[in-house]
């Protein structure tokens, strides 16, 4: 009886799918043209519209020129049809944007640079690239140390959202002092200041967007603009999220530690959480102990009991544009 029931269900499902496809297939056949079928599948894929201009840090960037239009078109399609990744980024942004926006503002960095963080890590706080870049801002070890972050096998502050954001801001300010243009700063963040400066001089260009660069850097600036466009108009590009879909901010209590913690597993248990939850809240901790011979002050986040359970009703959308309810 079991095989018969299974075959029945499969047959019913196939018939249902076929029935659903008929209106699409019939609708694609024009009168008088019985063999002219526009689509052989019951759905339609269409490219998103490319805006004629984009605004970054209040400055308008003309996208009508063919090369800029096509580069923007590529990134718009990538974000639009990279469904699961883009959806995850929108969900995560509700948790992380409120943390980094005040830091950008306090440092005089355009708010639009939060989208650079989006394209760097897909808003995955524990992201690590094959080249060794880490954290939301994908900072390389040497760059992290240069801008004041502790980076070793025990503590890696590239994974500390607040500290890494402040380090990124210092880099942005340094680069802006050289270029006086925020888009060029973003290109330098990807390719390095030396490369961008050299190419601007060699190619006699005034703007990084007009440079002939390796594909990754050429795409980088347009990915930044495309991310902003998608994030500011998600519903236009097919991303419909309700309040309960967004990842809420997790309430923590802050504990200041200036001594060694020999066993972080026991420390977590003493604070009513698991080691996994401790690491999730403090990804900059990289081992099962915290070595601290110098007496440095660390701020450890301990999730509160209130924050342990997911409660969609209490989720406050960071950006109302993202929700449909």
From TrEMBL:
This protein's UniProt keywords: Membrane, Transmembrane, Transmembrane helix
Highest taxon of the lineage: Bacteria
Alphabetical list of InterPro entries matching this protein: Lysozyme-like_dom_sf, Transglyc_AS, Transglycosylase_SLT_dom_1
GO cellular component: membrane
One BP term from GO: peptidoglycan metabolic process
GO MF entries: peptidoglycan lytic transglycosylase activity
UniProt name for this protein: Lytic transglycosylase domain-containing protein
Signal peptide residue numbers: none
Transmembrane domains' residue ranges: 7-26
Species per Swiss-Prot/TrEMBL record: Jilunia laotingensis
Pfam families documented for this protein: SLT (PF01464)
Family designation: Belongs to the transglycosylase Slt family.
Domain (Transglycosylase SLT) ranges: 105-202
């Amino acid at each position: 009886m079991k095989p018969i029931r299974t075959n029945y269900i499969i047959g019913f499902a196939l018939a249902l799918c076929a029935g659903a496809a008929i209106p699409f297939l019939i609708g694609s056949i024009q009168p008088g043209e019985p063999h002219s079928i526009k689509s052989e599948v019951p759905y339609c894929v269409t490219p998103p519209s490319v805006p004629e201009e984009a605004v970054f840090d209040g400055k308008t960037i003309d996208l009508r020129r063919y090369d800029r239009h096509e580069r923007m078109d590529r990134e718009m399609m990538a974000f639009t049809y990279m469904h699961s990744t883009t959806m995850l980024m929108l969900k995560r942004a509700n948790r992380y944007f409120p943390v980094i926006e005040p830091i950008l503002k306090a440092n005089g960095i355009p708010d639009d640079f939060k989208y650079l963080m989006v394209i760097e890590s897909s808003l995955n706080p524990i992201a690590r690239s094959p080249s060794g870049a880490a954290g939301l801002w994908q900072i390389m070890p040497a760059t992290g140390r240069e801008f004041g972050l502790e980076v070793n096998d025990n503590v890696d502050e590239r994974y500390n959202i607040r500290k890494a954001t402040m380090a990124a801001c210092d880099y942005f300010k340094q680069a802006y002092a050289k270029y006086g243009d925020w888009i060029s700063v973003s290109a330098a963040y990807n390719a390095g200041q030396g490369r961008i400066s050299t190419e601007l001089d060699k190619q006699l260009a005034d703007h990084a967007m007009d440079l002939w660069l390796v594909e990754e850097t050429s795409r980088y600036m347009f990915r930044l603009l495309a991310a902003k466009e998608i994030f500011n108009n998600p519903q236009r590009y097919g991303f419909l999220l309700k309040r309960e879909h967004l990842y809420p901010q997790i309430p923590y209590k802050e504990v200041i530690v200036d001594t060694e913690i020999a066993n972080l597993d026991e420390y977590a248990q003493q604070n009513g959480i698991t080691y996994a939850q401790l690491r999730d809240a403090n990804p900059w901790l990289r081992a099962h102990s915290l070595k601290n011979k110098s007496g440095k002050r660390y701020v450890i986040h301990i999730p509160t009991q209130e924050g342990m359970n997911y409660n969609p009703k209490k989720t406050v959308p960071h950006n109302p544009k993202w929700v449909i309810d």
